Amino acid sequence: MTTPPHTILIVEDEIIIATKISLFLKQLGYIVHGIISRGEEVLAHCRANKPDIVLLDIRLKGTYTGIDTALELKKNGFEIPIIYLTANFDDASFSKAKETNPFAFISKPFKKIDLQRAIELTISKLSGGITNESAQISSLLKDRVFVKQNDRMIKLMLEDILYAEADRSYCRVKTKDKEHILSMPLKDFSDKISNQFLVRVHRSYLVNISNIDEVAKKHVILQEKMIPISRSYYEEFIRKFQLI
Fold it and tell me: Among 187, 183, 184, 211, which residue's Cα sits nearest to residue 197?
Protein backbone atom coordinates (compact mmCIF):
# COMPACT_ATOMS: atom_id res chain seq x y z
CA MET A 1 0.00 0.00 0.00
CA THR A 2 1.36 3.43 -0.94
CA THR A 3 2.18 5.72 1.98
CA PRO A 4 0.34 9.07 1.65
CA PRO A 5 2.51 12.21 1.41
CA HIS A 6 3.43 13.87 4.69
CA THR A 7 1.61 17.09 5.55
CA ILE A 8 3.62 20.14 6.58
CA LEU A 9 2.51 23.40 8.19
CA ILE A 10 4.56 26.51 7.42
CA VAL A 11 4.72 29.16 10.16
CA GLU A 12 6.57 32.11 8.64
CA ASP A 13 5.72 35.83 8.71
CA GLU A 14 7.65 36.78 5.56
CA ILE A 15 5.28 35.95 2.74
CA ILE A 16 7.96 35.72 0.05
CA ILE A 17 9.94 33.19 2.08
CA ALA A 18 6.77 31.27 3.00
CA THR A 19 5.72 31.08 -0.65
CA LYS A 20 9.18 29.89 -1.67
CA ILE A 21 9.09 27.16 1.00
CA SER A 22 5.60 26.12 -0.11
CA LEU A 23 6.77 25.80 -3.72
CA PHE A 24 9.80 23.75 -2.66
CA LEU A 25 7.66 21.40 -0.56
CA LYS A 26 5.19 20.80 -3.37
CA GLN A 27 8.04 20.09 -5.77
CA LEU A 28 9.36 17.52 -3.29
CA GLY A 29 5.97 15.81 -3.17
CA TYR A 30 4.74 16.96 0.25
CA ILE A 31 1.32 18.43 1.09
CA VAL A 32 1.40 21.99 2.43
CA HIS A 33 -1.07 22.06 5.31
CA GLY A 34 -1.21 25.84 5.29
CA ILE A 35 0.81 29.02 5.77
CA ILE A 36 0.43 30.90 9.07
CA SER A 37 2.18 34.16 9.89
CA ARG A 38 1.49 34.43 13.64
CA GLY A 39 2.35 31.97 16.38
CA GLU A 40 -0.91 32.67 18.22
CA GLU A 41 -2.89 31.00 15.41
CA VAL A 42 -0.91 27.74 15.29
CA LEU A 43 -2.55 25.90 18.19
CA ALA A 44 -6.09 26.36 16.81
CA HIS A 45 -4.94 25.23 13.37
CA CYS A 46 -3.31 22.09 14.77
CA ARG A 47 -6.44 21.24 16.73
CA ALA A 48 -8.49 21.39 13.54
CA ASN A 49 -5.93 19.94 11.13
CA LYS A 50 -2.97 18.26 12.77
CA PRO A 51 0.04 18.32 10.42
CA ASP A 52 2.84 15.73 10.40
CA ILE A 53 5.58 18.38 10.65
CA VAL A 54 5.72 22.09 11.48
CA LEU A 55 8.28 24.37 9.83
CA LEU A 56 8.51 27.15 12.40
CA ASP A 57 10.32 30.48 12.11
CA ILE A 58 11.89 31.40 15.44
CA ARG A 59 11.48 35.17 15.04
CA LEU A 60 7.79 35.74 14.40
CA LYS A 61 5.97 39.05 14.59
CA GLY A 62 3.29 39.22 17.26
CA THR A 63 3.02 38.02 20.84
CA TYR A 64 4.46 34.53 20.32
CA THR A 65 7.94 33.76 19.07
CA GLY A 66 8.51 30.47 17.33
CA ILE A 67 9.87 29.03 20.57
CA ASP A 68 6.79 30.22 22.47
CA THR A 69 4.65 28.56 19.81
CA ALA A 70 6.50 25.25 20.14
CA LEU A 71 6.12 25.35 23.93
CA GLU A 72 2.41 26.09 23.61
CA LEU A 73 1.93 23.09 21.33
CA LYS A 74 3.74 20.79 23.76
CA LYS A 75 1.81 22.18 26.74
CA ASN A 76 -1.42 21.24 24.97
CA GLY A 77 -0.27 17.71 24.20
CA PHE A 78 0.83 18.13 20.59
CA GLU A 79 4.05 16.20 20.00
CA ILE A 80 4.42 17.41 16.42
CA PRO A 81 7.98 17.40 15.05
CA ILE A 82 9.36 20.92 14.83
CA ILE A 83 11.91 22.14 12.29
CA TYR A 84 13.06 25.63 13.18
CA LEU A 85 13.82 28.28 10.57
CA THR A 86 16.19 31.01 11.68
CA ALA A 87 18.33 33.87 10.39
CA ASN A 88 20.14 35.64 13.22
CA PHE A 89 20.44 33.26 16.14
CA ASP A 90 22.02 34.25 19.45
CA ASP A 91 23.29 31.78 22.07
CA ALA A 92 20.41 32.42 24.49
CA SER A 93 17.79 31.71 21.80
CA PHE A 94 19.64 28.57 20.73
CA SER A 95 19.70 27.24 24.29
CA LYS A 96 16.01 28.00 24.77
CA ALA A 97 15.10 26.44 21.42
CA LYS A 98 16.92 23.21 22.32
CA GLU A 99 14.63 22.83 25.34
CA THR A 100 11.71 22.27 22.94
CA ASN A 101 13.52 19.24 21.42
CA PRO A 102 13.30 20.30 17.76
CA PHE A 103 14.08 17.73 15.10
CA ALA A 104 16.26 20.13 13.10
CA PHE A 105 17.29 23.71 12.45
CA ILE A 106 17.55 25.35 9.02
CA SER A 107 19.56 28.54 8.72
CA LYS A 108 18.30 31.31 6.42
CA PRO A 109 19.03 31.84 3.62
CA PHE A 110 18.70 28.17 2.80
CA LYS A 111 18.72 26.08 -0.35
CA LYS A 112 16.14 23.55 -1.47
CA ILE A 113 18.54 20.71 -0.59
CA ASP A 114 18.79 21.99 3.03
CA LEU A 115 15.02 21.86 3.36
CA GLN A 116 14.83 18.45 1.72
CA ARG A 117 17.48 16.93 4.00
CA ALA A 118 15.93 18.35 7.16
CA ILE A 119 12.52 16.93 6.28
CA GLU A 120 13.92 13.56 5.22
CA LEU A 121 15.88 13.36 8.47
CA THR A 122 12.73 14.17 10.45
CA ILE A 123 10.67 11.57 8.60
CA SER A 124 13.42 9.01 9.18
CA LYS A 125 13.28 9.71 12.91
CA LEU A 126 9.48 9.40 12.90
CA SER A 127 9.69 6.01 11.26
CA GLY A 128 12.35 4.81 13.66
CA GLY A 129 15.21 5.19 11.21
CA ILE A 130 17.24 7.08 13.83
CA THR A 131 17.00 5.93 17.43
CA ASN A 132 19.90 7.75 19.04
CA GLU A 133 18.36 10.37 21.33
CA SER A 134 21.10 12.91 20.76
CA ALA A 135 20.61 12.60 17.00
CA GLN A 136 16.97 13.52 17.43
CA ILE A 137 17.90 17.05 18.46
CA SER A 138 20.78 17.41 16.04
CA SER A 139 21.30 20.81 14.45
CA LEU A 140 21.37 21.49 10.74
CA LEU A 141 22.93 24.90 11.19
CA LYS A 142 25.70 24.08 8.78
CA ASP A 143 27.09 27.61 8.61
CA ARG A 144 28.21 27.65 12.27
CA VAL A 145 29.41 25.61 15.22
CA PHE A 146 29.16 26.25 18.95
CA VAL A 147 32.43 26.24 20.87
CA LYS A 148 32.48 25.42 24.57
CA GLN A 149 34.09 28.18 26.62
CA ASN A 150 33.96 27.66 30.39
CA ASP A 151 30.26 27.15 31.11
CA ARG A 152 29.02 28.80 27.91
CA MET A 153 28.63 27.86 24.27
CA ILE A 154 30.04 30.51 21.91
CA LYS A 155 28.83 30.76 18.33
CA LEU A 156 31.56 30.44 15.70
CA MET A 157 30.56 31.23 12.12
CA LEU A 158 32.42 28.96 9.71
CA GLU A 159 32.80 31.75 7.16
CA ASP A 160 34.85 33.72 9.71
CA ILE A 161 37.45 30.98 10.08
CA LEU A 162 40.80 31.66 8.44
CA TYR A 163 42.44 28.36 9.31
CA ALA A 164 42.61 25.60 11.91
CA GLU A 165 45.94 24.27 13.12
CA ALA A 166 46.74 20.98 14.83
CA ASP A 167 48.32 21.26 18.28
CA ARG A 168 48.82 17.66 19.43
CA SER A 169 45.49 16.55 20.97
CA TYR A 170 44.05 20.07 20.52
CA CYS A 171 43.43 22.35 17.56
CA ARG A 172 43.65 26.12 17.26
CA VAL A 173 40.94 27.78 15.19
CA LYS A 174 41.94 31.24 13.98
CA THR A 175 39.23 33.68 12.88
CA LYS A 176 39.55 37.22 11.57
CA ASP A 177 39.66 38.70 15.07
CA LYS A 178 40.32 35.94 17.63
CA GLU A 179 41.61 32.44 18.29
CA HIS A 180 39.75 29.48 19.80
CA ILE A 181 41.49 26.47 21.33
CA LEU A 182 39.40 23.31 21.00
CA SER A 183 39.94 20.19 23.08
CA MET A 184 39.88 17.86 20.07
CA PRO A 185 42.37 16.84 17.37
CA LEU A 186 42.23 18.63 14.03
CA LYS A 187 40.90 15.48 12.33
CA ASP A 188 37.92 15.34 14.71
CA PHE A 189 37.15 19.01 14.08
CA SER A 190 37.38 18.46 10.32
CA ASP A 191 35.05 15.44 10.55
CA LYS A 192 32.44 17.32 12.58
CA ILE A 193 32.05 20.31 10.27
CA SER A 194 30.30 20.29 6.90
CA ASN A 195 31.50 23.19 4.79
CA GLN A 196 32.83 23.12 1.23
CA PHE A 197 35.17 26.08 1.85
CA LEU A 198 37.11 24.52 4.73
CA VAL A 199 39.73 22.36 3.08
CA ARG A 200 42.62 20.24 4.34
CA VAL A 201 45.97 21.36 2.84
CA HIS A 202 48.36 19.70 5.27
CA ARG A 203 48.13 17.11 8.02
CA SER A 204 48.40 20.03 10.46
CA TYR A 205 46.24 22.64 8.69
CA LEU A 206 42.71 23.23 7.47
CA VAL A 207 42.12 26.50 5.56
CA ASN A 208 39.11 28.52 4.45
CA ILE A 209 39.63 28.90 0.71
CA SER A 210 37.27 31.89 0.56
CA ASN A 211 39.71 33.84 2.79
CA ILE A 212 42.95 32.97 0.96
CA ASP A 213 44.92 35.95 -0.35
CA GLU A 214 47.62 34.11 -2.29
CA VAL A 215 48.33 30.58 -3.51
CA ALA A 216 51.81 29.27 -4.32
CA LYS A 217 53.09 25.83 -5.18
CA LYS A 218 54.00 24.98 -1.59
CA HIS A 219 52.00 27.40 0.53
CA VAL A 220 48.97 29.68 0.85
CA ILE A 221 48.73 33.06 2.58
CA LEU A 222 45.82 34.22 4.72
CA GLN A 223 46.16 37.65 6.33
CA GLU A 224 49.98 37.43 6.15
CA LYS A 225 50.02 33.95 7.68
CA MET A 226 51.93 31.47 5.48
CA ILE A 227 50.53 27.93 5.63
CA PRO A 228 52.26 24.98 3.94
CA ILE A 229 50.55 22.77 1.35
CA SER A 230 51.50 19.10 1.37
CA ARG A 231 52.14 17.47 -2.00
CA SER A 232 49.48 14.84 -1.25
CA TYR A 233 46.79 17.52 -0.85
CA TYR A 234 47.86 19.94 -3.61
CA GLU A 235 46.06 18.51 -6.67
CA GLU A 236 42.69 18.20 -4.96
CA PHE A 237 43.14 21.61 -3.34
CA ILE A 238 43.97 23.50 -6.53
CA ARG A 239 40.93 22.07 -8.36
CA LYS A 240 38.71 24.10 -6.06
CA PHE A 241 39.90 27.38 -7.58
CA GLN A 242 38.78 29.21 -10.68
CA LEU A 243 41.99 30.05 -12.50
CA ILE A 244 42.36 32.55 -15.36
Answer: 211
Check if the beta carbon of residue 84 is closer than 8 Å to that of residue 12: no
Residue 151, pLDDT above cutoff 80: no
Domains of the chain, start order:
7-137 (3.40.50.2300), 158-238 (2.40.50.1020)
- Tens of pLDDT, residue by residue over 35-84, are 999 999 999 999 988 899 999 999 898 889 999 999 999 899 888 999 99
CA 122 to the chain's CA centroid: 14
Distance from C-alpha of 45 to C-alpha of 72, rounded to nearest angstrom: 13
How much is the pLDDT for 207?
Answer: 93
- C-alpha R_g of the chain: 21
- CA-closest candidate to residue 183, choices 170, 174, 173, 172: 170
How distant, in Å, are the alpha carbons of 3, 20, 46, 113, 120 from that of 24? 20, 6, 22, 9, 14
The band of 134, judged by pLDDT with boundaries at 50, 70 and 90, is: very low
Nearest-angstrom CA–CA distance, 40 and 169: 49
Query: What span, in angstroms and rounded, lies between the C-alpha atoms of 132 and 220?
Result: 41
Q: What is the pTM of this model?
A: 0.55
Return the bridge partners of 171, or none: 166, 182
Q: What is the DSSP string of 128-148?
A: TS---GGGGG----TTEEEEE
